[in-house]
Amino acid sequence: MSFRTELPEMWERFGLSVMRRIEPERAHALALTALKTGLLPLKGPVTSPRLATTLAGLDLPNPVGLAAGFDKNAEAIAPLWRAGFGFLEVGAATPRPQDGNARPRLFRLTEDAAAINRFGFNNDGMEVIAARLEAAQSDIPVGLNLGANKDSDDRAADFARVLARCGPFVDFATVNVSSPNTERLRDLQGKAALAALLDGVMAARATLLRPIPVFLKIAPDLDRAGLEDVAEVALGGAIDGLIATNTTLDRAGLSSRHKGESGGLSGRPLFEKSTRVLAQLSQLTDGRLPIIGVGGVASVQDAWEKLRAGAGAVQLYTGLVYGGITLAARIAEGLDARLEAEGIASVADVVGTGRADWL
């Protein structure tokens, strides 16, 4: 497998230049449409004996995944797995369809290589998404991000409902209590509320003919006590792994004119904050739970540092805005080249080797 630079292909650079002239949410919709045409010259699966790894029982051809939010409604699974990802996460899905927050609700912070969104779990609802998941074809693991309706009387129960409906058609699920765009949702990260919520989710999983791993996605804005609570609940056997992290409310160091917009910040400014949280969780769980590292991944070096901090795999989303849809393939290839150059037999051998650097 030959090493390639991280620069997009010429066709992709042209597409990115066009997309940046279009309103961000409209550009996102056009990107999904372009993927669904099947006409983009995507690379196909990227793997090697060095890149292949196992995470919470999932066999991944490479450790570079797509984070939730890009394909909210499970519309583009087939073309996305051909883009070189090692696994995909779609959603978030809620029991009932909902429109989300008012537009505009997505902002590019080009100067900061970042984005702010306040979508508010806009999606087609679990019934439509379940039908798409059942019909989808993929050669890599596909997971679903579970959400709650904004006006629900029992948000904790919503997560279990979505899992019960869609669980038969996915390979893993993620409990998302860390989005900053649904009022009081993050309150469910408290120890007692989280334990009760996960009890309901696990009960729903027990009804599935094929039990699947369940991950918990946390916010990067938790303090040390909050992280300790999450670790305690996680190590109690309630979940199979963690995803660190969701978007942040922090605005430190931003220069873009959109820096004051409300919502969750993602992209380059999140990298250090999310990686430090990842390392702390790895330490608190003593490496006993697999962790997926998310936040600011846009290069081989970013992915490498997440792995060193304790992640068994990584996910990206905002990086695609600036690096294009083939970014995952380029990162996976770059990781493979680095493993080969350093004489490392498996990407799993990198996990946690530099955790102390991020504590």
Question: What report would you give on this structure?
Answer:
The protein has 359 residues and is of the alpha/beta class. It has a single domain, classed as Aldolase class I (TIM Barrel). The chain is 35% helix and 15% strand. It has helices spanning 10-19, 24-37, 77-81, 126-135, 155-166, 191-206, 224-238, 271-284, 300-309, 318-323, 327-341, and strands at residues 53-55, 58-60, 64-66, 87-93, 106-109, 114-117, 142-146, 172-176, 214-218, 241-244, 264-267, 291-294, 313-316. An 8-stranded parallel beta barrel has the order 3-4-7-8-9-10-12-13, surrounded by 5 helices. A 3-stranded antiparallel β-sheet has the order 5-6-11, with no helix packed on it. Strand 9 (214-218), helix 7 (224-238) and strand 10 (241-244) form a beta-alpha-beta unit. The protein is globular. 54% of the residues are buried.
